[in-house]
Amino acid sequence: MIKEQNFWLTTVEMPAADGSRALPETADVAVIGAGFTGLSAARVLAKVGAKVTVLEGETIGWGASSRNGGMVLPGLKLGVNQLISMYGRERTQRMYAASVASIDCVERIVREENIACDFARCGHLEVACKQAHFDDYARQVEVIRREFNHELKIVPRSELRSEIGSDIYYGGMVDEGSVGLNPARYVAGLYGIRDCTAGFRAIRASILRQIDFSALHGRHGNLGRPQRHLARGRRRCAARGVR
């Protein structure tokens, strides 16, 4: 019988936020959600002295942070030419540079916190299902080299077998700087540093439905005229990154 389950979650016992702790009366920062973004933000803030509480309604990394392909890739969901046409050259250059820097950021966290998550600079390959797709790869490689100073490699169909053992596709495009990792172990590792180098608290709480901004005050008084936000569930990432 075929057993269907998330492979990553079979490699680590995902911890739950501490349900025995009461919510603190005050916190400098309250982070909602103990996934990649929430735990990374808590780590950075705690290291500069902020009193941080992370609120999570499920287990640590529940949802997309432990249920993705484990690929850490540069770039954004839209193609570079489309991004330039929408946002202009300078802004697109900044966005692309940030995506490349995010890979270095993940690597730095893994090394500094000694997170065992099978981090590897293995690169990634995109394959073309149509000739038109492969033709577009060549244009993308040139634009990315010229505009972002980032090197990609075109793999023609005649050489594709050396990459994937097949030439069924029309060719491919390789980025050698991309990373593979075990996302469940990575997010569990982020949680594991809470009482060590970072010093933030993660508390099991009911799933957030609404925030009362009228009750929020900073160290220097009211935070200003609030806007109301409603959390309606989990969001999916549109940009590349850990996917």
Protein described:
This protein has 243 residues and is an alpha/beta fold. The protein has a domain at 124-176. It is built from seven helices and ten strands. The strands form four sheets. It has a three-stranded parallel β-sheet, with helices on one face. A three-stranded antiparallel β-sheet has the order 4-6-5, with helices on one face. The protein has a two-stranded antiparallel ribbon with strand order 3-7. A hairpin with a 2-residue loop joins strand 9 and strand 10 (221-222). The radius of gyration is 21 Å and the shape is globular. The two termini are 29 Å apart.
Helix content range: 25-40%
Structural class, from helix and strand content? alpha/beta
Order of helices and strands: EHEEHHEHEHEEHHEEE
Cα(first) to Cα(last) distance is 29 Å
Please tell me the overall pLDDT: 84
Strand content: 5-15%
> What is the C-alpha radius of gyration, as a whole number of Å?
21 Å
